[in-house]
Amino acid sequence: MKCKSELGREKNSFYQDAESVRVLFESIIDAFAYHKIVYNSEGIPVNYAFLEVNNAFEKLTGLEREESLHKRAKLIFI
């Protein structure tokens, strides 16, 4: 069983790792988008939604982050 101080260190480590990933995500020069696949009632993929995009994605596509986040691709590209 872990003591409170160990749990606190692990929690801080998690947040530091999450911040490191965010900084890396924003600083890479390659366009990157994180998606969620949307399935129909039969379990067939029919669309995808943008969960996160980086600055390079915005520059490459011309889509601003606020325009694309949590929206389905069919609404954006059609």
Q: Strand order within the widest sheet?
A: 1-2
User: Level of helix content?
Assistant: 40-55%
Low-confidence stretches: none
Mean pLDDT: 82
What class, by secondary structure content?
alpha+beta
Instruction: Report the principal-axis shape.
Output: globular
**Termini separation (Å)?**
54 Å
Radius of gyration: 17 Å
* Structure summary, number of beta strands: 2
Order of helices and strands: HEEHHH
User: Main sheet?
Assistant: 2 strands, antiparallel
Count of separate structural domains: 2
What keywords describe this structure?
51% helix, 21% strand, 2 domains, alpha+beta, 78 residues
Describe this structure in words.
By secondary structure, the protein is an alpha+beta fold. It has two domains: 1-28; 31-78, no CATH class. Helix content is 51%, strand content 21%. The protein has helices at residues 4-27, 55-61, 65-68, 73-77; strands at residues 33-39, 45-53. It has a two-stranded antiparallel sheet with strand order 1-2. β1 and β2 form a beta hairpin. The longest helix has 24 residues, at 4-27. The termini are far apart.
Summarize the structure.
With 78 residues, the protein is of the alpha+beta class. It is 51% helix and 21% strand. The radius of gyration is 17 Å and the shape is globular.
Outline the fold blueprint.
Blueprint (H helix, E strand, L loop, with lengths): L3 H24 L5 E7 L5 E9 L1 H7 L3 H4 L4 H5 L1
Antiparallel strand pairs: 1-2
